[in-house]
Predict the structure.
Amino acid sequence: MFFEISKIKNQNYPNNYELKNGIIFNCDLGWQRIEYKHYVIFFKGYILDNLKDEEFYESIVTDPTPKFQGNFFCIIADETITVTNDKNRGSPLQYVQNQKITNLEQDLTPAWSDKYLTIDPLLTVTEHHFSPYTSSYENIDYDSALDQVDKILCDSFETFLSKNNKPLKVFLSGGIDTLTMYSYIKKFTTNFELVDYEYKKFTHFYRKNWDTKIRKYWGYNQIHSWGDVPAVLLTGGCGDEFFLRGPAMLSVLAEHHQIDTLALLEQHTDCYHRHYLLLEKNSKYFRNTNPDVDTSSKKNTIDHILNNLINDHQHWHIDETICFTPFKNIAIPGIMLNLPKQNVIEQLLDAQFNKDLIIRNNPDDLRFLSTSKNLIRFENLIGIKDGM
């Protein structure tokens, strides 16, 4: 889902489409080109709303404000060009005024995830603001939160699978997020390959951009890619963050609830997150207060966390490999941020919310979970194929 809109044909991309006014749309493999009315539309990714293609095209050319769930970019070309996406965009977006718009390069002017863009024939970029989420500050009990998140995930899997015609690939690391994902995919289909290898096909796009650009996005050092062969990789992307286990935002939530995280970790020596959260790069968040937010206010705490999460991008589609990221839904943390303090502690220590989602699907799957986050012991996965 990488692209650049500029005045030049950038040979680092395998596809270079000339639009009106001499503007070039450069992109990796896997984009669809659609002619609709007097527009040319480029689309890559997937939509999790139940509507026909024609309904989607009509909707976005009428009003390109992001409003659909999924993980996609959509480029609408006419005299002007519109860059729009799903409701919580899966990748960063940056530009240099009158030169280019891209999601491959870094250190340019960022368009935050509450913006979509229009571009005139001189490549002048205009940002348009929208609200990518709705905040709630009402307390919720644990079972209700589980019900709501479970429904979000079930609906996402069911809708995606109803539209997908590409081979499904599932890779398990032994961690809680890929295991949560695995427990859900089995509810709906057994027609997937359980990947027990690491694979990255170096296409034209990879070769031209790997060292200087792609590898700077940490996610691409970890995920698979089948290059020019269409495939869907089911991933745990956004799991740490959107299930409120990422250290930076977790520290804000812990401060709001007056939780002494480091003291708890010392008491619970066998908890899933202990080793990970005590790493220097992570424990620093819990040793210091968060001066950027008034954590005594629940509203300020929730708004701060959601605003950061909506701009926390993991990885996105590359060439013909589509990444299905069911946890990339800002409604999930929106629900969990209203849980009682005790449930926050249980998630902080042991990823209990995730475990309880897995238990709803198949309690026996928990035997495949590593004892400690990011302490990958593949022996836990022995017999996983028999567990399907």
Observations:
- Residues 147 and 179 are 19 Å apart (CA to CA).
- The chain has a mean pLDDT of 93.
- The two ends are 31 Å apart (CA to CA).
- The longest helix spans residues 142-163.
